Amino acid sequence: MAFTDVDQKFLGQFAKKLEYQPHLSAFLFKILGLSVNLSRQLVKARKLRKLDPTRDTKSLLRYHHIIWLSREGLLMLEDWILPDVAPFVELKVLAYKLRASFYHIFVLFHNDPRANQISVPTYSHPPGISSPQMNGHAIGGSKGKAPVRDPPGLGSRSPERLMNGGPVGGSLPPGLNPVSIPKPTGSFLLPAIDYIPTASACFAEAARLADNLLPGSHPLRLSVKLEYCAFLYDCLKDVEGTRRLAKLAIADVYNAKEGMDDETFEDAAELVKALIKMMKRGMPGGTPSSTPGMGSSSTPGTRSTPAMSTGAIPAIPSPGMENPI
User: Fold this and answer.
1) CB distance 179 to 59 below 8 Å
2) Phi and psi for 214 in degrees, rounded to 5?
3) Whole-number pLDDT of residue 281
4) DSSP state of 179
5) How large is the C-alpha radius of gyration of the chain?
6) DSSP labels for 229-241?
7) Positions in the chain whose pLDDT score sits under 50
8) Are strands 259-261 and 302-304 parallel, antiparallel or unpaired?
């Protein structure tokens, strides 16, 4: 979802219109080609059950390709496009959205700690050593024998205590040497760090620009909100935040007064459908009674978004309800 069809369409349009600025136009075309290639790789990677970048698997080459393409795209964007987009309102929003998209990819495929496994399971005892007692009761003891308990003064047999030595001695038994967690194999392409704070800041900036510079029904504004929702759901596990953001984005579409042509109308309608699906993710069964429409044509060749007289959105209940959709 990093690059929607709307993003690529606008990239091509801007690259063609700005041919009088050959430097900027050339890099826009490069970003367009890179996004098309990267989108195909992302679709294939999403079909895999689980991508483990610490193991030498068949998906390792694709993983490296995704990281390399994203890194090169971000470098081109920040060095050669972002400094020159200030005079162009729509292109500015798109450029900041693409920057957030690249960091979104880093979080999904190259984050440390991994976005889908933030915490590592801990054990009360080192693997391979069975505890003689559980909750103060003997395990496997015969009838009439006293339960086996920890020696006095040892307390909890945590891995940290055993690693640091104990009453038995300072050296560790064979097989209990500290083991460092392997880093992703793509670290030679990009440092394996926590990209979530940077990605969150980039999405917030892109959303702020979209809200301030574009009308509520503009496809680029909806594209920003759609991927922001995906980032909140997939990376931050913020289900309520995802629903709230999607609902507000759809409300902005209904409250927009600007007219739009047929092509813009179709793009906006598809993005609204995707936002409705985003609201339904992680929720129990149930679907909206109807798909929100965008109104009827006000003049030949143009369409306008309806203004809701009551301010409510049909078939889109407020968050916090049970089975709201």
Assistant:
1) no
2) -120, 150
3) 87
4) -
5) 26
6) HHHHHHTS--HHH
7) 117-167, 286-302, 304-325
8) antiparallel
- Cα distances (angstroms) measured from residue 62 to each of 30, 67, 181, 263: 20, 9, 22, 35
Q: What is the pLDDT of residue 260?
A: 87
H helix count then E strand count, the chain: 9, 4
Q: Which amino acid is at 303?
A: R
How far from the centroid of its chain's Cα atoms is residue 256's Cα? 28
Cis upstream peptide for 121 (omega within 30°): no
Torsion angle, alpha carbons of 265, 273, 199, 213, to 10: 30
| Distances, alpha carbon 274 to alpha carbons 2, 4, 105, 229, 281, in Å | 14, 11, 19, 10, 11
d(CA 204, CA 191) in angstroms, rounded, equals 23
pLDDT, position 154: 39
Dihedral (Cα; 138, 143, 145, 148), 10-degree rounding? -10
Residue 123 in 3-state DSSP? coil
Which distant-in-sequence residues (6+ apart) come within 8 Å of 26 by Cβ?
A: none
Question: Please, what is the Cα angle at 97 between 91 and 103, to 5 degrees?
Answer: 140
The Cα–Cα gap between 222 and 267 comes to: 9
Q: What is the per-residue pLDDT for 2?
A: 75
Give burial (CB, 10 Å; 0-12/13-18/19+) of 126: middle
Question: CA torsion sign, 250 to 253 to 254 to 256?
Answer: positive
CB atoms within 10 A of CB 28: 29
8 A C-beta contact, residue 243 and residue 319: yes
Q: What confidence score (pLDDT) does residue 223 get?
A: 97
Do the Cβ atoms of 186 and 63 come closer than 8 Å? Answer: yes
Identity at 93, one-letter amino acid code: V
- Structure-block tokens of residue 296: 């009827």
Q: HSE of 5 in the Cβ direction (CA atoms, 13 Å)? A: 8
> Which has the closest alpha carbon to 291: 230, 250, 249, 244?
250
pLDDT the model gives residue 129: 36
Count the neighbouring beta carbons within 10 Å of the beta carbon of residue 201: 12
What's the token pair of residue 287? 């679907």
- Helix 196-213 vs helix 219-234: crossing angle, to nearest 10: 160
pLDDT at 215: 95
